[in-house]
Amino acid sequence: MELRDFEHFRDLLLERRQMLSEWMNSGATLREQEVEAVRQLLNQIKDALGRIENHSFGDCDVCDGKVEPHRLEIQPISRVCIDCFSAEEKALLEEDLYLASKIHRALLPQSIPEIKGFELEVRSLAAGNIGGDYYDFLQGPNGDTMRIVIADAMGHGLPAGLLMSNLQGALRILSSDIDHPAPLITRLNKWICRNVPVTKFVSMACMCVHITGEDETRVTYANAWHVPPIVVRADGSHTALDATGTVLGVHEDFAYEEGSFTVSPGDYLVLYTDGVTEALNSKHEEFETDRLVEFVRSWQSGPFEGIVDSLMANVLEFSGSSQAADDLTAIILRKK
Length: 336
Fold this sequence. Notes:
Elements: H1 3-24, H2 32-53, H3 69-74, H4 87-107, E1 118-125, E2 133-139, E3 145-153, H5 158-175, H6 181-195, E4 202-210, E5 217-224, E6 230-232, E7 238-240, E8 259-263, E9 268-272, H7 274-277, H8 288-298, H9 307-319, E10 328-335
Antiparallel strand pairs: 1-10, 2-3, 3-4, 4-5, 5-8, 6-7, 6-9, 9-10
Helix pairs in contact: 1-2, 4-5, 5-6
C-alpha cells in the first residue's frame, strides 16, 4: 500500500471520527448508552488509525500482499486478500459477483411512478458492477402520499450492494405501516443497528410528497446525514435540506427529526448522492453544490425531459472521464 493509500484511509477514518465527534457535541440530547456506543466507535477508529501510522493497516495475514482497498473501505478489519482465497473460493466469488450484480440492478425500481402534479426523472450509475447507492418510491399506506428515498452505503462494490439489498427489504416492510419520514427512518435505524456490523454506515434522505392536486404541495422530510437535497425555486433561489439526524447504523436509540416545506409550480426538488457533488476534475476541484444549483437553474426556462441524463453527462465531462469514479444517483422533480 502506497503512502497516498494510507492517507486516503486515514482521511476516511478522520472524517468519520469528526462526524461522530460533531454529533456528540451538537447539543442534542443523548442517552448514556448512545454516548457509550459512539465512544466505542471512536476507539475502533483510533485503533485503525494506529495501524495506519505503523503501516500495518491492510496487511494480509497469509501472504506478503495487501487486502483490497475497496474491501477495507467497507470492513477495515479484513486481514486476508482475495489472492489468498482458494481456487474454489475464487470460483464461488466470481459466480456470486455475477448474481449479485443482477440482483442489485433488480433492487432498483423497474419503472418510475407518476406523482400527481410533478414531472420526475431519475438515473443511477454504479462505479463498478455493484453500486452502493439506492433509491426507491414508496406509496403511503393511505395512497395520498409518495415517499422518495435515496441512500448511500459507505463504499461500493459487493459489501455495499449486500447492505442495500437488506436495507431495501426492511424499508419496504416498514413503509407499509409508517407514513412519515422521521419515524420511518428511526425504525429503519433500529433494524440496521441490530442486523448490520457497526463498521457499515448508511446515509439516507426520505421525502414525503403529500398529494393533493393543489398548486402548493406540502413535503415533509428527514435526513440521516445524507448530502442535503436541494429545493430550487422558480425565482432562482434555493434551500438545502440539512441533516435532521446522524447516519444510520450508529446506535439503535437515535431518533430523527422531521422538517417540512411547500413547493409551487416551477420549483425543483433535487435528491442526489455525494458522487455527484464530490466528482473531481484534473485540478482536484469538486463539482460541488453550487454547480449543481446552477445546472438546475439553466433548465428552468426549457423542457424538463432529459434533465437527469444531461446532469450525469455534465458531471462526467467535468471529471474528464467516461466512467464514474464513484456511484452517481440523482432524482429530480419539478412541480407543474
